[in-house]
Structure formats: C-alpha cells, structure tokens
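In the current project phase, our protein records have gained a structure token line. A sample record follows, to show the layout:
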Amino acid sequence: MDSGTKEWWMFAKWSDEYERGVDEYVQKAFAFKSQGNQICFPCESCHYRFWRHESVVRDHLICNGFVPRTDKLSELGISISIESEQTILDNDEGSNPNDFNDDIVGLLHDARDAFTNEPNDEAKNFVKLVEEGQEELYVGCKNHSKLSFMIRLFILKCDHKLTNAAFGDILELIREVLPDAKLPTTFNEAKSVLKVMGLDYTKIDACPNDCMIYREEHENATSCHVCETPRWKSTDTENDIQNENGKTYRIPQKILRYFPIKKRLQRLFMCQETARYMTWHANGRENDHLLHHPVDGQAWKEFDSLYPKFDDDPRNVRLGLATDGFSPFNSMSIVHSTWPLMLINYNLPLWMIMKPEYLMIALLIPSPSSPGNDIDIYLQPLIKDLKGLWEFGLETYDASTNQRFDMHVALMTTVSDFPGYAMLFGWSTKGYLACPECHYEADSEWFPCSGKNVYRSNRKFLDPSHPWRHDKRNFDGKLEERCQPIPLNGIDIENMLCDFPNAFGKKQKKPRRDVDDPTPWRKKPIFFELPYWKHCSNRHNLDVMHIEKNVFDNVIATLLDISQKTKDNVSARRDLVELNLMPELQPIELEDGSEEFPRSRFWMSLEQKRKFCQVRKNAKLSQGYASNLSRCVQVGERKIAGYKSHDAHFMMNYLLPIAVKTTLLKDVASPLIRLCAFFKGIWSKTIDPRGLGKLQSEIVETLCLLERIFPPAFFYIMEHLPIHLVDQIKLGGPVSSRCMYELRRIFMK
C-alpha cells in the first residue's frame, strides 16, 4: 500500500486503501494484544472501551472509522509519519487533553498488566473489576459498560450535590425502566465498586477540640487523652445505631476523612496517556531558559542538586499541597468552615496541573470553625504516607514503558491564602512581625487611632545607590541605610524550633510568651518531619489571587471614599498628628472645636466618582471573560461592590488604569497604573528571568511613590506582600501554577 504522505486511516472509509489498512491492523492487533479472542479497538464509537471479537472489530472500523492512538499503534509495530503524528497530537496542549477520560475499560486493561506477575488479593480484585468493565450494561448497549455507567452516575451525584438517598432512588428507577440492566441495588453496593479502584476514603475519629485523632495507639480509645472529651456524641448504649447489616455503631463527635494517596498515584502510571505526561517535565518540554513551569524555578533545581538520586528517575512525583476553608452550605451567613486539602501534581505539563481531574483531595477536615494551628493534628496520616513514599518508595507499573519501578514522592511546596499560610507555616501573620518573608526584620509601626500595624518602610528594598534612600523630605524624614531582609532557610527554622513545645487543642494551654521576646512562632510545623523539607527553598507560597484582590479592594474603597472601607478616614488622619507625619493631610482644628480635613491629592468630586464608576459600568466584555461587572457598579451611589476575585483581577489589569487616567491627576494616576502593570506582568504564562530584576525594582518604586500619596494607614500587610512576589517567581516559576483560582472553584462547587 503506497499512501504517499497519508496513512491508511486518512483515506475514505469506502476506499480500497482503507479496507486493506483495517485488515492489516486487525491481523496485528489479534496477534499481539488479544485476550480471550477479543481486543479493545479505536473505532470512533468505542474508543478502546469495549472488547469485541474479530468480525465485530472489522465491521466497526469499516462503518465507524478509525481514531488512532500513537502509543497503541507503536505496541503493534505500526509506525506513524511525522505529519500524521502531529495531527494526532495537536490537541495535547489544547483545552481538551482529557479525551481519554471516558476510556474506562481501556484504562483498566492498561493497568491489568501491572498485576500479571503478582496474583495477590489486590490483583484478583482488580482483575475482577476488569471483567465487570467488559460487561454490557444490558444486552445490546453500545455506549456504556456496567462500570463506565456507574462512574458517570457518581460524577453526576457529585456535580449536582445529590444525596445518598436520591442516588439510591435513581438506581431503583433505572432498574424499573431497564430490568435487565446489571446495576447494584443500593448506594453502598455501588460505592463498593469504586473502592477497588482506590477511590474510597478512610474515616478517622477526631477530638472535637482538635487535640488528637484516634489512630495507631489511640485507635480504640474512648476519650481524648489531652482534654478527656468523650469520643462519642452519646455514651449511652441505648442510642447506638443499627445499620442494614445488623451491626451497631456509635456516632463520633468529629470525623476526619482521609483519602489515601498511594493507589491514586499508582493509577497515574497505569494509563499510558497519563504515564507519558508524568515525565513531561523532563522529556517533553523545550529548554529555552524561560520560566514556564515550576521545573524552571530555582527551588526545583536546588532540590535536584541536593537529591540527585531522586532526580535520576523523572517518574518520581513532586507534589504541592493546597488548602482553604469554605462553607459547605453555600451561605456566608452560616458560621461553618470545612477545610479540604488538595494535592497538586507538578510532574504534569502546565496546562494540566490545575485541571480538576488531576487534583487529588487528601483530607477533608469538618468543623464549625477553622482548625487553625491545630491543623497539624489532621495532617498526621498524610505526612506518614509521604514519609514512606520518600524513604521506601512504592512499586508501580509504568504502562508507557511496560516496566515496574519504585516510585518516590516529594512534597515541594504549599499554596494557601494568608491566614492559611499562618496555619501551615506556624508563623503568626498578625502584629508587628506579620510578614513571614521579612521575619524578625519586618519593620512595622503601630497606629493608635487606626488600631493596626502599618508596613510602609519600602525604601530598604531599593537599590543601595538609589537617591530615594536619602530623600527625607518626601518620605518619613529619615535616611534609609538598611538592606532588605534575607528570608530564613529551612535549616535555620528547624534549628530555631528544635525544642519548641507544641501544644495542640482548643482547650490546651499554650506556652506563655516572654514579653521581652515576642516570638511570632506558634508551633513547629509538622512538615519538618519530612526529611527533605528543610532543603525546600519555596516551602510556602504567597497566594497572588488573594493579595491582588485585597490590594484592589483597598484602592477602590480609598479612591471612592466608601464608608467603613476607605483607608483615608478620620482615624487615619488623626494618626498623622500623633506621629507627626504628612502635615499637608493632618486635620485642622477650628475655633469652634471641630476639625477640618484637607483634601488629599487623590480626592475626587462627585462627578469624577461617577465618571470613574461609569468606565466599569459601560465596559463591554467578551463572553466568559469576566462576570457581569455592570451589576457590581452603582453609579448613583458611587460604589463598586459584590465582585469576585476574578472580577478584581480583570479590573485591576485592564479597567482600573483607564479609570484613574481619566479622573485623577497625573502624579497620582501614574503610580496606580504602574501597580496595575506589575500585577499584569506577574500573571504572564512565560517570564524571562532576565527581566525579574526590573520587575522587582518597579514594584518597590511604585510602593514608594504610593507612600507619598496615600496616608500611612493605607499600607496594611497586604500592600506590603507584593514586594516579595518576584522572589517567589524566581523560586517557583509563574504564579499560575501556584495560585488559588482553580482550587477555589473546586472548593465552592
């Protein structure tokens, strides 16, 4: 068959070339891959989901067409030309990298080879699951097998928040309509199918005061060994509940749900497509010396140099941990906070890292309130598994190479908002030393009238030869000769906290702090139990999403003088008198005892405020680019409220520069436009590391210019944190793989 630049499947289905190609493919496939005289095949309808006999396979390929997969064809010795292979792989980096997600049976048969050499109990269960996956849902069903249909039902249950009872009723209805369908009768029976796939979770009872969890030596305890709170809601045996199997059980006061990670990590390598992507960071990217991915950051490279044995095998997995609190009832009026912990797979390409299907939930911590610093109690089972995966590894089958290997896993970083940063890091993000990057060298001032600490000493981050360091008149009247702080490394922190007395639990007495040594540490983080954690350079990330949202909120509230939110209020002006700062903004006491407040440089008239709001009200946006911003703008009341984090991101990058340019003076508008340009720059998907120095000097100069315009009360901790974002880009790569946008969408579903 001479097809020129065409492969046989690219010809018309009625052509002789196509028919000869089908015959050749069927002959090779049954010679190499048949099991019980059946194969999975890539017709346009089946997509490797069903196992058929030879005659059925040929008919399907002739009638429905052939959709090739390069990895499957290479196993049969069928080569693919560069042109056709490029056509097949064009969508690898597109918006739909998951065309194989519904290929449930194909995935299971890829994984089946992993158990051929060790027929243990797990292998037997998995082979049984493969056999069930081959069963038709009912006689003649071509679209779903029994297993794929059950998985789709579970997806619908999660997406639409169906209760267990509703799920069971749907199963009963389907069985009535399709009496021959091979379906389970109850929800619990359906759920047992997923356990074999490693998609179940473990319930671990916990103390309601966050003192301990009932595991290992305390597994059979009936009360907390710290605060002696009973484990069960009722100690009366008459209140025991009897389940459908006749067993009785008591209701614990609090339950931690742990989703074991070992099987799920193994599953990533049992599917050939996913296994190929798991080594993308080493074999699939172009090394153009730009920052595209965390692998391009300094933290990854430093870790590789310290642990070359771990780096030798690109299949070793690098993870990030993300957490945030949310209300499971979709109501902000209910005080209830549930904390999920997600694992981010950094082996994958950048366009797949934050996809929901590749994020793994590890823990679900329920509570009426946040666990706070006691979150370490709930991290114990996860840390134990991570230690084992680092020290001993886990034997795993790689479907892409048809080999077994010992998979090792390292947790590289964490992602959270600023309160979550304090919970995970153990450093208090309130008070005089709220900045964990500046640590003990953080420079803040207490403003008595405003009742908060202010961070406005940004000149020490300037270049040592910068003239603004000697400008007393336009700043605080002092020379600035200090150098910028050097962040603490992991070894210093571990030595500093080696004897720190951890005390977990809401009723546990915390260690009293010495007044002369107001240490900001609240605990020694549990992450230091990982042997490599002290050598991770980018242990905790500042979340750009929350920082950008808070900075935008403060800018808008101050410019529009929104009541209860503006930073240029009466208290802020009176602080200027107390500290003898910015005399042009200090209140003037009149003869009748009242006060007159001079207009600031960013003051706007009512007409200017309406014009400022009108820019956002009239903005025409592409479908799906942002939400309906016009509903957030109240032109008559001169307010902008009710917008989400992504709306703030869009307005900060595109709309705010236009609004300030048309309404404010040039010397006021220019720093705000530079601030917007900075945030827009750090969100780039590709960053040239040679330009990071200029980006850092830009944000420092911008904050210094804002110091000369806004009152000091404007510079809360969130206005200080942008100064550290560039350093974190150097360590961890672009911020898109280390932010909370996609994670918040998942948490809020």
